[in-house]
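Lab notebook, bench 4. The sequencing result for the construct came back, and we need a structural model before the next group meeting so we can plan mutations. Quick request posted to the team channel:

Model the 3D structure of this chain.
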Amino acid sequence: MVLKNKWKEQGFIDEPVAENIDLKAEIRKLCKEKDAIILAHYYTIGEVQEVADFVGDSLALARKAAETDAKIMVMCGVHFMAETCKLLSPDKIVLCPDLNAGCSLADSCKAEDLKKYKEEHPDHQVVSYVNTTAAVKALTDVVVTSGNAKRVVDQLPKDAKLIFGPDYNLGNYINEVTGRQMLLWNGGCHVHERFSVSKIIELKNKYPDAVVMAHLECKSPVLALADVKGSTATMLEYAQQSDRKQFIVATEAGILHEMQRTCPDKQFIPVPPEISESGLECSCNECHYMKMNTLLKVYNTLKYEWPAIEIDSEMAKEAVKPIERMLDLS
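Done. Here's the predicted structure in token form:
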């Protein structure tokens, strides 16, 4: 009982297992026994992606899981992604290997702050990036992804007054390509904010034939250097279909695992941050929240079916509406 309380304080289960246990095999065994599936975001560590049933972007994973008959889903990503899974699959058990796996972008927009901002701009609609909490989605008119943001915004009335949040860089890009003047929330992803122009220029000089790909969460000077701008899935698809052999990649380094797996004959070069979180230079740019998902945590969360995501029913009812509107528009 003391140990269980400790688990709950930590937000994950870290019960040790035998040294010789094959965690991947045991996870797959538990999935079969419990009618469960594993979902892994592109930014998680390679061995977690390898044990997953589906690997992808957050909303795509939630939608894919909702189409299955599985009773349990384990969302290996960050907390808001597990919430989105629960919104689209309210009758299923949604597990999150580590409740401490948050998101700097989602955390940059608190529901109470957005509520106040809406009250100050009562004639505006709210367009929220999918990287938000369920509480923020409940205050939103339509949700977008980095892949469909332009398409969704283009379909809103031209004279509509819009608030876009929480990612300032994505909102700024959408303003530029649509001619809109949306009010932009000043939020950002701690990973994509760290990419630097100078590092990309150095890599372009070193690999002159390489295609530069950048996520839309990057700052505008970084996007200006990119040949391909888009979501993680957009970059992956481009690399798979392109006849080019070298790619400079400005997004979280976890995507390189899937890029290399599906394009073994191509070279993917991660753009390093200007300065890492430790203050030292490093060769890649990683999200420490995503890396909190480990095989041991996946195994234990499946074994004990905890931590499970629960969302207040009234909040969930409101939070799913902007997702459904996005799906209608896109």
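Residues 1-6 have pLDDT under 50 and may be disordered.
Will bring this to the meeting.
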